[in-house]
Automatic annotation (TrEMBL):
It catalyses: alpha-D-glucose 6-phosphate = beta-D-fructose 6-phosphate. GO terms for molecular function: carbohydrate derivative binding; glucose-6-phosphate isomerase activity; monosaccharide binding. GO terms for cellular component: cytosol. Belongs to the GPI family. Transmembrane segments: none annotated. This is Glucose-6-phosphate isomerase. It comes from Harryflintia acetispora. GO terms for biological process: gluconeogenesis; glucose 6-phosphate metabolic process; glycolytic process. Pathway: Carbohydrate degradation; glycolysis; D-glyceraldehyde 3-phosphate and glycerone phosphate from D-glucose: step 2/4. PROSITE patterns: P_GLUCOSE_ISOMERASE_2, P_GLUCOSE_ISOMERASE_3.
Length: 421
């Protein structure tokens, strides 16, 4: 099978020697990272994709997902941040033929909650609430609100339509036992933003109809490829080194740019992964997402003539697997020269022209994905997770904690409890 590929489009004003030196330093870190750093032993459950997603577990999740699809018209996924973004990324990108997923617990907007309740009107549905310790406000209140809707519709049968995904020993597991909910495992050695390849991400993907066996297979094969290549040419090493080189050179943002709208939520997941992992101690590149072509008419202006503060990574799809041609027309609209040309040709021309224009001013990378399918998106999830781990180690920050997020939670809790601020 084809693998994703990394290519440097532009080095900007930095020398290749500086990049190669950092790549060498990154490669020397690999044996220790694969062995499992003692400092992070409680956060490394994602490193081997099959630790929490062996074939037998994948089959079990597929069986439970099939049951939900047969009995419901929608699955409500309640979770915030890493608890829902990976599943949403793949479901949106792949557009599978399972049941629709309704997303909740990621905002406190009353309008959004009213919309969710409206989407469920007259529909048969299940709830899957995901929370590692069930102490976060957004999923907590959403579960209470939507559980009441479910109970109002199904009475005593509502409990059979609730699945909770939490850490063993947590309050969520206790609630499952007390109320007869199905319990799925949120591994205690995986943080939310690294949880794509366990029950957290895989079950809702499967309910939506994603082939999770192929997702895991892609991740496993990417893991093997990265693990067996201990050289400075390892693509994760080169990506991490490129990012850190330009951070040292004064860049402060990394922009992930896409020309395929289906990858929008995957970009959002990437933003969370890198922002929450590296934005600490006054350090780290600020990750932002641009959706081209539309953003070329806004952000594109800044890239070409604004402050030179960013580097750009283009996430390219080699085969969009769709064909739409520009039709002929008797109307003289000025676009006759495009008649008969396929949209994939037009999109690729815009993509290549943008890389050429931006590379003349910025350091740029191209990350190519053969096609948008479960296997290659599994590769991509694992590639970014491992690259973030390595890049954080090179930067000198803990990639697995999030003290700033906890600060907002504590302040919000005090306000809601009426305590002095």
């Amino acid at each position: 099978m084809q693998m994703i590929k990394l290519k440097i489009e532009s080095m900007g004003n930095a020398g290749r020697g500086e990049l190669e030196a950092l790549c060498g330093a990154g490669a020397r870190l690999l044996p220790g990272l694969w062995a499992g750093d003692e400092r992070y032993r409680d956060s490394m459950g994602w490193l081997d994709p099959e630790e929490w997603a062996p074939p037998v577990r994948v089959e079990q999740l597929q069986g439970k997902a099939k049951e939900v699809r047969e009995k419901a018209q929608s699955l409500v996924l309640i979770g915030v941040g890493g608890s829902n973004k990976a599943a949403r990324a793949l479901v949106t990108a792949l557009e599978p033929e399972g049941i629709p997923i309704v997303y909740a617990g990621n905002t406190l907007s009353p309008h959004s909650m009213r919309q969710v309740i409206g989407q469920l009107e007259g529909k048969s549905f299940y709830i899957n609430v995901i929370a590692k310790n069930f102490e976060t406000l957004e999923p907590g209140v959403a579960f209470r609100t939507l559980r009441a809707v479910l109970e109002g519709r199904y009475g005593g049968g509502a409990a059979k339509r609730i699945l909770v995904t939490g850490t063993p020993g947590s309050r969520l597991q206790e609630m499952a036992g007390e109320n007869g909910y199905d319990f799925l495992t949120f591994p205690d050695n995986i943080g939310g933003r690294y949880s794509a390849l366990c029950d957290v991400g895989l079950f809702p993907m499967a309910a939506a109809g994603v082939d999770i066996a192929q997702v895991v297979r892609g991740a496993v094969e990417m893991c093997c490829a990265l693990r067996t290549d201990g050289s400075p040419q390892n693509p994760a090493v080169r990506y991490a080194a490129f990012r850190n080189l330009w951070y040292q050179q004064g860049k402060r943002l990394e922009m992930l740019s896409i020309f395929e709208p289906r990858l929008g939520y995957l970009g959002e997941w990437w933003v969370q992964l890198f922002a929450e992992s590296q934005g600490k101690r006054g350090m780290g590149l600020f990750p932002v997402l641009s959706k081209y072509s539309e953003d070329l008419h806004s952000v594109g202006q800044y890239v070409q003539e604004g402050a030179p503060i960013l580097l750009e990574t283009f996430l390219q799809v080699e085969d969009p697997e769709a064909d739409v041609s520009v039709p002929p027309s008797p109307v003289q609209d000025g676009f006759q020269y495009l008649e008969g040309k396929d949209y994939r040709f037009l999109n690729r021309a815009a993509e290549e022209a943008t890389m050429q224009a931006h590379s003349s001013r910025l350091p740029c990378l191209r990350l190519s994905v053969p096609r948008i399918d479960a296997y290659h998106l599994g590769q991509l999830l694992y590639f970014f997770e491992f690259s973030c781990y390595l890049s954080s180690e090179m930067l000198g920050v803990n990639p697995f904690d999030q003290p700033g997020v906890e600060a907002y939670k504590q302040a919000m809790s005090r306000r809601l409890r009426g305590e002095a601020i």
